[in-house]
Specification:
Helices cover 85% and strands 0% of the residues. The chain has two domains: 72 residues; 162 residues, no CATH class. It contains nine helices and no strands. It is elongated, with a radius of gyration of 43 Å. It is an all-alpha fold.
């Protein structure tokens, strides 16, 4: 047993000096046991470290697959509200771009023609001003996004947010057409109460009829936002 204690303090050769054959065998056996135990422990640690690394790698891989799956499902399996809101936003964007470029084109044409006509009179700048005023709504249409586009930026990533956005847009569209209808009725009544005839004797009648007709359109036909929300409700009812 003394050999086992001495092995932690002296070298192998020092521990063999003055030993009997039996003690030498004990020393050799003890060193061999320590060496074998050390190798086994080192091998066990390496195996454990490798197993932990593989487990960590597998866990990371599974977590990555889960995240990718969630993102893919949210992108691929878009709900009806998201689809309808995206379609509405895309339609609004196309319409305002068409309107914007149309106003710009008309403004540029009117500005050039007016400037060419008025330049000899020394007031060609007024042609530029008129063209700029006509083109101004086009600039606004191209720069300012529509309400549907703003709602889609904030809510198209979520089905619930998209549904709420469609409801808000429908309420806004309904309010706007009712206000427009009331304004048209007031304009028609005002035309009848205050007759005028700039081109014919019945100009006020034509104006009143036109105002009443636009009011009827406002009150009878839902806005595209309301139709979009109605499509969403229809799809939800069908799915239920």
């Amino acid at each position: 047993m003394s050999a086992a204690v001495d092995s932690t303090r002296w070298t192998f050769e020092e521990r063999l000096v003055g030993r009997t054959g039996r003690e030498i065998l004990l020393v050799v056996a003890h060193d061999a046991h320590d060496l074998r135990w050390g190798r086994m422990r080192q091998r066990a640690l390496e195996t454990e470290t490798k197993a932990k690394g593989e487990q960590m790698g597998l866990r990371t891989f599974l977590m990555s697959l889960l995240i990718v799956g969630v993102l893919a499902s949210s992108w691929v399996a878009a709900g009806p509200a998201q689809e309808i809101l995206e379609d509405l936003a895309r339609s609004e964007r196309n319409e305002r771009r068409i309107a914007g470029y149309t106003y710009l084109g008309i403004g540029a044409a009117v500005g050039l023609v007016s400037t060419a006509v008025l330049i000899d009179s020394g007031i060609g700048i007024y042609g530029v001003v008129v063209g700029g005023l006509i083109a101004l709504p086009g600039v606004v249409a191209l720069v300012v996004p529509s309400a549907a586009e703003l709602e889609c930026r904030q809510g198209c990533d979520s089905e619930d947010d998209s549904a709420l956005a469609l409801e808000r847009l429908a309420d806004r569209g309904r309010l706007e057409r009712f206000v427009s209808g009331i304004v048209n009725i007031v304009a028609g009544v005002a035309s009848l109460l205050h007759p005028f005839g700039y081109f014919t004797r019945y100009d006020y009648v034509y104006t009143a009829m036109s105002s009443f007709g636009m009011a009827a359109v406002d009150f009878l036909f839902p806005s595209k936002e309301e139709r979009a929300y109605a499509r969403y409700r229809e799809r939800v009812d069908q799915g239920a």
